[in-house]
Amino acid sequence: MIAPGGTIGMLGGGQLGRMMAMCAAQLGYHVHVYAPERESVAAEVSQHFTCAPWTDHDALTGFAAACDVVTWEFENVPVGPLAAIDDHLLPHPRALETAQDRLKEKRFVEALGGTPAPFAPVDSQEELLAAVERIGAPGILKTRRDGYDGKGQWRIGSLKDAEAIRLPQAPTIYEGFVTFEAEFSVILVRNREGAIRFWDSTRNVHEDGILATSTLPAGEAVTAQVEPARALARQVADALDYVGVLTLEFFATEAGPVFNEMAPRVHNSGHWTIEGAATSQFENHIRAICGLPLGDTRTVASKVEMRNLIGEDALTAQTTLAEADSHLHLYGKSEARAGRKMGHITRITR
Ligand code: AMP
């Protein structure tokens, strides 16, 4: 158990790290952020900041030596350099390795009995044509690595599209398009002893590949599929001997839950837990990695809606402060670029 006054290392300096750092402070810990970018909204609310590239071995080992435990808020941290600080890291970086490559991730989940959308690795135009012929169109071509919020994705409507597309200079994967009734996520926390708790699954709506809203109650289409999705998430967490918060995203389909992707971290679709659950995902991640008892994950509201503030949405959001039981979170980012997550609002009905 890490005693109060201990230091938590945070790889990545974004809003997820910021919200975790605020919970860490509540529990009496210091946070040391490590990120390559100068602007870090997590470092703004933390005690220490190392601004250095992921590949700076000395900076990374010096940072870890100053921390009692190191975690991450950004899932594309390169895994290679982390070998040097392996003994400090929770969760174990094998979770990052699996989640960073869409192909590896889908094969891993399939081996555990999960059902992803039909997929094929694509490294050439011939492979793409063969994949579209076998799986069918429409489908989505995605880069295997570094894609998020709909980036690195191309919709393929027909074989003709596949012939015309110029492949990116990176390995890709072709996925059949899933017809779904709803999207949802399973968010769990697992402690060092292997105990697992789940939060309620919200219904998630995406716009332009970016999460727009997460709501509860999630509706019958989602709730009917939560149990098998949780069973898979539990298997994933156990297989990785995972410690902390883990998220799996699903499509609810007529044939049952189809696995979309996993995030080995706290997740945007769990931001509602700050006000809507007895213990938030951020606090429970800190509790799990510090060896503290896990908090109750029960929902404490009859209705919840979390809405992301994207780009300029954030500029006028202060007007919502006049609403009862509406909770505004702004991440302190300096530039409201299109498609950038600037904050979120959670509206609660008790
Ligand atoms: P991803 O970054 O892979 O989670 O994709 C972002 C969003 O695009 C998802 O949440 C879905 O709304 C949509 N999407 C991605 N892959 C598929 C698919 N195979 N079939 C249908 N919709 C998809």
Fold and architecture overview:
With 350 residues, this protein is an alpha+beta fold. It folds into three domains: 83 residues, Rossmann fold (3-Layer(aba) Sandwich); 59 residues, 2-Layer Sandwich (Dna Ligase, domain 1); 168 residues, ATP-grasp fold, B domain (D-amino Acid Aminotransferase, Chain A, domain 1). The protein is built from ten helices and 17 strands. Strands 9, 10, 11, 12, 13, 14, 15, 16 and 17 form a nine-stranded antiparallel beta sheet that branches. The protein has a four-stranded parallel beta sheet with strand order 3-2-1-4, sandwiched between helices. Strands 5-8-6-7 form a four-stranded antiparallel beta sheet, with helices on both faces. Strand 9 and strand 10 form a beta hairpin. The longest helix has 14 residues. The two termini are 34 Å apart. The relative contact order is 0.13. The mean pLDDT is 97. The site of adenosine monophosphate (AMP) has 13 residues, from strand 14.
